[in-house]
């Protein structure tokens, strides 16, 4: 990426971010050496986050600007005279310069300016409109002056490019929008467990378990009500705000690299993780750190699933028209529509129309369309009381004549041991069971095979010979009867695999995980053709979670384009022809 036109700009922004982060850490009594190590671990050695500084996202300059604002905010209180005035003007200017790059990122620094306005306002409430109280508005006035200068520059630049028209970027963002009413469920599926609701995806906490102490550190410092609390508030506000963005889903966080929305927070999250560990070891902070950890553990114990809603009528026509009726007073959150297997990818295809009791529903604002192994899930952004939901699918989603009828669903809440913690023992209903999805001992990945009923993220389309994995990870969700037999001590996972490779990249190594635990690792040479792999899996691990989740970590995945073989930019790893999960030897 060194040849990219944005390489120098991105590198400069990364260096500015690192410099400001180290300065910010000084205010938390973290030495520069420790701060540098935190930044390296959370942003540079973290390949996923570092990649977001290589790709020319608009969040790269805003990341640097946000860190500049936080640095000036913490340091201006230590300055005096003209130096402080310049710092305040620069802080307002840096905050307003976020607008040309990514207007919504301004929300990240909102707590800073709210804090600066709150102090003078409280002074006037306490002391009345005295001269000293009015003087406390001077820092805020200087900050506002800097912000106005930046806003005028932004307005002039925008008018020069777009005139009085709305830019395409703003129009698209407006169409997608934010669904603030869905914040609780979005936090659950993004950070804790997306599979029961979205049927696919990887939770952020599953990918980065160290964010748990980060959350503890954020809570501890938020309740201390100081300038350092404002930094914690900025991180929390930004994460909560973007969690409400309709397009930020557990799938495209990784598939489309939308993790970059949050990338400026990762060094800060690393800092607060360090502070949480430090505070826990400190006798004076042990109690608040422990209470914060217990509170978060309780939140992690919440379980959200779907349960079926009784329908008075349900039908889907080969033309694509569908209709589901419910008794009055039933709250509905989703409609599951079967139409045969298809590879899960992205947001999938939208229905042409969708109506609830005659009212037209808008995509993003009112519902999302999520491809599932059984067909399509229409997930409403909030539960509604409805008697009839009807619509028309587009031509690519037309249902066969013998398809089962659609099913309505609503959320059900429960509590249990957190799914992210060992022994990862979450039992979730499998939506495929309601449609009589076939289960069997062997999964066929060849064209026309049944693999589309089981694959999750990380798979390309079926081909005559089989299916490639696509990306650094791939997963399947199985609901097989044989492995649940308690009379057997272990199960046997068998794979028919090949590997993609050429030249200097001759092989692929894969780590296999079942229900979150590693069960084996193997390497396949690309020149060796098909190979049969067999792994023994303890039956207790299989029975621990339903559906059974099998995942492949593929660190050697690479695209033919990168190897100079072709223009194909899919990140290929393993090629699978067949997979089976069967009971092993019976217990004596």
Concise overview:
The protein has 588 residues and is α+β, with helices and mostly antiparallel strands.
- Indicate the percent of residues in helices: 25-40%
Radius of gyration: 27 Å
State the separation between the terminal residues, measured CA to CA. 59 Å
Q: In percent terms, what proportion of residues is strand? A: 15-25%
| Class from secondary-structure proportions | alpha+beta
- Overall number of strands: 19
Principal-axes shape call:
globular
Main sheet, how many strands, which sense, barrel? 5 strands, antiparallel
Strand neighbour order, sheet with most strands: 1-10-4-8-7
Number of helices: 20
Chain oligomer state? single chain
Overall pLDDT confidence: 84
**Structural domains: how many:** 3
Low-confidence stretches: 341-348
Describe the structure.
This protein is α+β, with helices and mostly antiparallel strands and 588 residues long. The chain folds into 3 domains: 7-298, no CATH class; 306-421, Jelly Rolls, CATH 2.60.120; 438-583, Sandwich (Jelly Rolls). Helix content is 39%, strand content 22%. It has a 5-stranded antiparallel β-sheet with strand order 1-10-4-8-7. Helix 1 crosses helix 2 (32-44) and helix 14 (211-222) crosses helix 18 (286-300). The protein is globular, with a radius of gyration of 27 Å. The chain starts with 6 loop residues before the first helix and ends in a 5-residue tail after the last strand.
């Amino acid at each position: 990426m060194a040849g990219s036109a944005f390489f120098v700009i991105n590198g400069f922004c990364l260096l500015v971010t690192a410099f400001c982060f180290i300065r910010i850490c000084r205010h938390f009594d973290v030495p520069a050496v420790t701060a540098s190590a935190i930044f390296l671990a959370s942003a540079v050695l973290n390949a996923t986050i570092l990649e977001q500084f290589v790709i020319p996202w608009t969040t790269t300059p805003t990341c640097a600007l946000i860190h500049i604002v936080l640095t000036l905010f913490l340091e201006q209180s230590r300055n005096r005279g003209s130096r402080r005035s310049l710092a305040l003007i620069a802080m307002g200017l840096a905050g307003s310069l976020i607008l040309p790059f990514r207007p919504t990122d301004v929300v990240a620094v909102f707590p800073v300016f709210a804090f600066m306005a709150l102090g003078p306002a409280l002074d006037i409430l306490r002391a009345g409109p005295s001269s000293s109280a009015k003087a406390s508005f001077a820092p805020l006035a200087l900050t506002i002056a800097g912000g106005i200068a930046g806003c005028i520059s932004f307005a002039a630049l925008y008018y020069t490019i777009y005139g009085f028209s709305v830019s395409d970027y703003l129009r698209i963002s407006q169409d997608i929008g934010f669904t603030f009413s869905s914040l609780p469920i979005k936090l659950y599926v993004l950070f804790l467990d997306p599979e029961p609701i979205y049927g696919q995806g990887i939770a952020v906490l599953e990918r980065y378990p160290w964010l748990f102490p980060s959350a503890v550190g954020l809570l501890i410092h938020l309740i201390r009500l100081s300038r350092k609390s404002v930094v914690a508030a900025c991180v929390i506000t930004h994460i909560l705000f973007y969690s409400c963005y309709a397009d930020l889903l557990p799938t495209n966080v990784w598939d489309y690299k939308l993790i970059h929305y949050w990338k400026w927070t990762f060094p800060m999250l690393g800092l607060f993780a360090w502070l949480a560990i430090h505070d826990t070891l400190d006798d004076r902070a042990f109690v608040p750190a422990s209470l914060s950890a217990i509170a978060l553990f309780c939140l992690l114990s919440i379980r959200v699933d779907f349960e079926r809603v009784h329908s008075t009528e349900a039908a889907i026509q080969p033309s694509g028209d569908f209709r589901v009726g419910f008794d009055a007073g039933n709250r509905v959150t989703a409609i599951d529509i079967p139409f045969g297997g298809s590879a899960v990818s992205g947001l999938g295809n939208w229905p042409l129309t969708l109506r609830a009791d005659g009212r037209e529903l808008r995509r993003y604002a009112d519902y999302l369309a999520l491809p599932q192994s059984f067909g399509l899930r229409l997930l409403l952004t909030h539960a509604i009381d409805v008697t009839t939901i009807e619509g028309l699918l587009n031509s690519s989603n037309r249902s066969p004549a013998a398809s089962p009828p659609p099913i309505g669903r609503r959320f059900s809440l429960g509590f249990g041991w957190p799914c992210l913690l060992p022994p990862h023992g979450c039992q979730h209903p499998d939506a495929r069971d309601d449609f009589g999805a076939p289960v069997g001992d062997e999964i066929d990945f060849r064209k026309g095979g049944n693999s589309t009923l089981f694959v999750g993220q990380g798979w390309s389309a079926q081909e005559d010979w089989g299916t490639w994995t696509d990306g650094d990870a791939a997963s399947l969700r199985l609901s097989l009867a044989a492995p649940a037999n308690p009379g057997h001590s272990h199960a046997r996972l068998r794979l028919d695999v090949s590997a993609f490779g050429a030249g200097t990249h001759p092989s692929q190594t894969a780590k296999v995980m079942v229900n979150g635990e590693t069960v084996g690792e193997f390497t396949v040479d690309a020149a060796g053709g098909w190979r049969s792999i067999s792994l023994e899996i303890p039956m207790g691990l299989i029975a621990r979670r339903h559906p059974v989740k099998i995942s492949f970590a593929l660190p050697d995945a690479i695209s033919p384009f990168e190897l100079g073989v072709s223009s194909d930019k899919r990140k290929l790893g393993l090629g699978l022809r067949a997979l089976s999960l069967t009971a092993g030897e019976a217990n004596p």
